[in-house]
Design a protein that fits this description.
The chain has 11 helices and 11 strands. The chain has helices spanning 8-30, 45-61, 76-88, 103-106, 109-114, 127-135, 144-155, 175-184, 199-204, 249-252, 266-287; strands at residues 4-5, 35-41, 64-70, 94-97, 164-168, 188-192, 208-211, 229-232, 236-239, 242-244, 258-259. β5, α8 and β6 form a beta-alpha-beta unit. The chain binds 5,10-Methenyltetrahydrofolate. Residues 143-285 form the Tetrahydrofolate dehydrogenase/cyclohydrolase NAD(P)-binding domain.
Length: 288
């Protein structure tokens, strides 16, 4: 029996519809339009594609959006000055600095992200928001990718309470926040990484398996418990036009109970949740 395919396209359009309604309500009740500013530094082609997708989705949902392109030789000070300008602009509710940053300022990434006002931090990367997620305070920003994965599991009515959720990957952007979100929903959470012993056995005990490693086809069918839900967060470009996830989809689909494809999976949810975070940010700022 082949797994249920969890289509990012279908869930994302559901979440975007919800976002549209909230945008209309904010307009009606408070006469405000949520606004997002995306800063892109340098000329990374993949980043340009993502930033264009974000801009297009904003238009679709009714969110005001500004893309700010800065040259590759931008200094940390110049970038922080731009962030500060946006921190003070009332019509901008969300600020996102597209990653990765150019090599010359990669080391300054933490300082740069910390310059974003936590109330406008729609990526949820600021330490204040990371802390709020950790202690279960619900007035913070949740990183878009794990937020989208959680909303999809809930919308698909996949049981989380009491389930064993295994996350492969411990990044600040996906692995760690995904673990916190699932823990808050009463899953038993195991976070695995490159030093984990018995990776295969641990993965095979997962009811929900989240792959966020960044290695093509790293998760093979023999690592999946029959009937498990498999979420593939990987985006690996193995040829100019060939995108694959971290899961060996063709074989995994025969074992899993439900599985997300790549492309057409979690990436689309990430953008949908950026819209929701921009709306959440506008609501939070209304209350301040
Ligand atoms: N500050 C920051 N925040 C981010 O959220 C952020 C970032 N930097 N840097 C890069 C990653 C990557 N990311 C994706 C968004 C959408 C798709 C997406 O829509 N993917 C589609 C199409 C992919 C394609 O065809 O290229 C799919 O998987 O079907 C993928 C990846 C956001 N990121």
């Amino acid at each position: 029996m082949s797994a249920q395919i969890l289509s990012g396209k279908i869930f994302a359009s559901e979440f975007k519809e919800e976002a549209k309604k909230q945008v209309l309500a904010l307009k009606e009740q408070y006469n405000i339009t949520p606004g997002l500013a995306v800063i892109i530094v340098g000329e990374n082609p993949a980043s340009k594609v993502y930033v264009n997708n974000k801009h297009r989705t904003c238009e679709e949902v009714g969110i005001y959006s500004e893309v700010i392109s800065m040259p590759a030789d931008t200094t940390k000070e110049q970038l922080i000055a731009k962030i500060d300008e946006l921190n003070y602009r009332q019509e901008i509710h969300g600020i996102l600095v597209q990653l990765p940053l150019p090599e010359a300022i990669t080391k300054e990434e933490a300082d740069i992200l910390n310059a974003i006002c936590p109330l406008k931090d729609v990526d949820g990367f600021h330490p204040v928001n990371v802390g709020k997620l950790m202690i279960g305070q619900d007035d913070g920003m949740i990183p878009c990718t794990p937020y989208g994965c959680l909303k999809m599991l809930q919308s698909a009515k996949i049981n989380i309470d009491g389930a064993h959720a295994v996350i492969v990957g411990r990044s600040n952007i996906v692995g760690k926040p995904m673990g916190q979100l699932l823990l808050a929903q009463n899953a038993t959470v195991t976070i695995c990484h490159s030093h984990t012993h018995n990776l295969k056995e641990i993965c095979r005990s997962a009811d929900i398996l989240v792959a966020a490693v960044g290695r093509p086809h790293f998760i093979t069918a023999d690592m999946i418990k029959p009937g498990a839900t498999v979420i593939d967060v990987g985006i690996n470009r193995i040829a100019p036009k060939k995108l694959v996830g971290d899961v060996d989809f063709d074989n995994a689909v025969e074992v899993a109970g439900a599985i997300t494809p790549v492309p057409g999976g979690v990436g689309l949810l990430t953008i949908a949740m950026l819209m929701q975070n921009t709306i959440n940010a506008a609501k939070l700022q209304l209350a301040k």
